[in-house]
Give the backbone structure.
Amino acid sequence: MTKSVSPFAAVQIVALLLFTIVSHAKLADPQPRATPKPQAETIKIRLVNGRNGRPMTGTASYVNVWVGTERKEAIAIPTDGNGVASLQLTLNTAEVNIPSLPSDRASVVVTHPVVKYNESFRINVPYAWCQLNGGDYSWLKTMELSTDRVLQQGIAMANTCGKPTAAAKPGEVIIFVRPLNWWERLKE
């Protein structure tokens, strides 16, 4: 003799099976987790002559950089043949290659600096910025930038000195500048 299962009992068995499967299944986390920052990121700061679009190069071409607020002295990074000053950010303090503070508290010149990551950094260049009010002592101007914004989107500054334009890639800052004229050099 065969015994039949009532429809109500069958529904209960299926519901119990589904409950067991769902309760033991690993549920996806509804909140996205922040992605960890990579061990090292490179920021490239490109100096472009706003009048003719050529890179700013030579022995007098450099970028002063302050990462975070640890150091009061600037890190002077010379530009290469393409007008680019590179800065590497790291979370590993053992990789930092900036010498300890000099006794005369002057800037430290480092060709390929590796510094500890920080949420912001400041830059200064020895040229007039090609932005509104660019000639008004702009070579003394310090601009603060968001590290995450530069790494994710890149930043290209405006150019009020001429027609050249450029689009920044992630990890790149493009600054349009012009050499100081004789009057600006006299005011230095």
In short: The longest strand covers residues 40-49. Residues 40-187 form one domain. The helical segments are 7-24, 147-152, 182-187.
